[in-house]
Amino acid sequence: MKSMKIRSFAQIAIIALATSTLAAASLGENTIAFVKPDASSAKLATIAAGTELKPVAGASSAAGWLAIELPGPHEVFVQNKEITKSLDVRPGAELRLEPSATAPVIATAVAGEALDITGLHGRWTKLRMNRVITGYIKLPTSPLPHASVPTGARAAAPGAAIPAPVAPPPAVPAAYGTASPGQPAAAVSLSDSGAGALPRSFEGRFVSTRSPFKPRRPYDWALTDESGTRFAYLDVSRLLQTEQIEKYVDRFISVFGTARPLANSKDFVITVESLQLK
Questions:
Q1: pTM for the full model?
Q2: Structural domain tally of the chain?
Q3: What span, in angstroms and rounded, lies between the C-alpha atoms of 258 and 239?
Q4: Would 153 be classed as within a structural domain?
Q5: How far is 38 from 62, CA to CA, in rounded Å?
Q6: How far, in Å, CA of 93 to CA of 90, rounded?
Q7: Whose C-alpha in 2, 109, 156, 227 is 20 to 30 A from the C-alpha of 117?
Q8: Domain containing 225: what range?
Q9: Which of 237, 241, 246, 248 is closest to 89 using CA atoms?
Q10: Alpha carbon distance 140, 264 (integer Å)
Q11: pLDDT tens, residue by residue, 19-35
C-alpha cells in the first residue's frame, strides 16, 4: 500500500511539473484543443505554435491533460427558435460547436451578451461569441524527436536551433462572383447546373431586386459581382427566419447552394442552403 501511494504521488508530481512547464512557456508546435480531456472528443481549436498558455485556475482534469483558456471570438450555432424577433439569443439557449442537435454544447447564452449573427444554416443560426471558454490539450509524454538531416545537407551545430520545416501555403479555392480589381468577374458555367448539380460556394454582394419603378423580378434577392453586375438570383425559400435576411443587404457574403438555369432565360438562380458575411 505504501509503495502504491509513493507511485501515485510521483505521478502527480510529474503531471504538475509538466503543467507548470507548459504554463510557463509557449507551445513549441501546433496543438489541438478538445472539448473534453479525451482525444476522441470534438476539436475546439488548433493553437498555433508560440502561443502562451493560460491554464484554467482550479480546474480538474484527467491525468495527462491540461485545461486552458481559449479567448474568443468563437463560432457557435443556436437553433433558430432561440432567436427573438429583436435578433437576440434567449438566455439559457445552448450554443453548439456545429449546426446539429448532436454537436457538443460549448456554452449557454447569458442575458445581455453580445452575440453577432454571421450566417444562416437551415434551422440554425451562426453566431460569433467573444467569451473565453475552456479547452483541453494533451500534455507531452516525451520530448519531440530531432528532425532528420537530408542526405547531402550539413547537420546543425550542437545546441543550434533546428529550423522548422516550412509548409507550402494552402491553396485558396476560387469562388464564383469574385475578381481581382480591374478584372471581370469569373464566368459561371451552367453546363453542370442541372438537376444533378452539386452545391458549391459563391461570393458577391447581396442585393434586393425589388424596385417601385421596375417590373417584379423572378426572385426578390440577387448576387452581384464587384462591378455591381447581377450574375445570379437567390432563392432563399429553404432558409428559416427569413426576417434576418435584411441584415445582409448591400454587404458581401458567401453563399452555399446549388445553381440552376431559369427556363427561357439566360439567367440562373442559386438555391441557398446557407449564407454568411464575408
A1: 0.54
A2: 2
A3: 14
A4: no
A5: 9
A6: 6
A7: 227
A8: 200-277
A9: 241
A10: 64
A11: 444 444 456 788 898 98
